[in-house]
Amino acid sequence: MKFPDAASSVLCVIDIQEKLVPSISAFDTVLPRQQLMLRAAAELKLRTIVNEQYPKGLGNTIGPVKELLQADWPIIEKSSFSAFGSDTFRTELAKVTAKSLVIMGIETHVCVQQTALDALNSGQEVFVLADATGSRNDSDKALSIDFMRSKGINVTSVESFLFMLMKNSGHPAFKAVSKFLR
Hints:
Layout: E1 9-14, H1 27-44, E2 47-53, H2 55-58, H3 63-66, E3 75-78, H4 87-94, E4 100-106, H5 108-121, E5 125-134, H6 138-150, E6 154-156, H7 158-166, H8 174-181
Parallel strand pairs: 1-2, 1-4, 2-3, 4-5, 5-6
Helix pairs in contact: 1-8, 5-6
């Protein structure tokens, strides 16, 4: 496995939406990890694509996440469970040479998992940030994490992934990202 780098990685944010969030188990621990990743993504200039599953019915991305989004990060409406089912998502992804797709969001066992599998099938190195994903049932999340790992998807934490991106304390964003971790 090669270490990812920000220039060839894309953060894929999946369905952190108003009507989904209230039913997610332990979301109060998931949200801070998502916010940490978004702050660091901005600092690292990590290309980010935000997805919303049928926002007309499920609402938009929640405020505590939306307020951290950068103006050049597209928000894409989708109806398929996998982000790859959206032509717009695939077009946005094609704008950069993405060797690695980094995924966080909800629900782990549906949209996150299907997006991760499609990314793997398209030849990308896939990283699922387990502590920044959630499902309604803890058992669904746990089974999905095990399943994805068994398929060769890299399952890790936000903090671990960020240190992989920076590689050493000499990275230009190290001090800023380190402050987010405190």
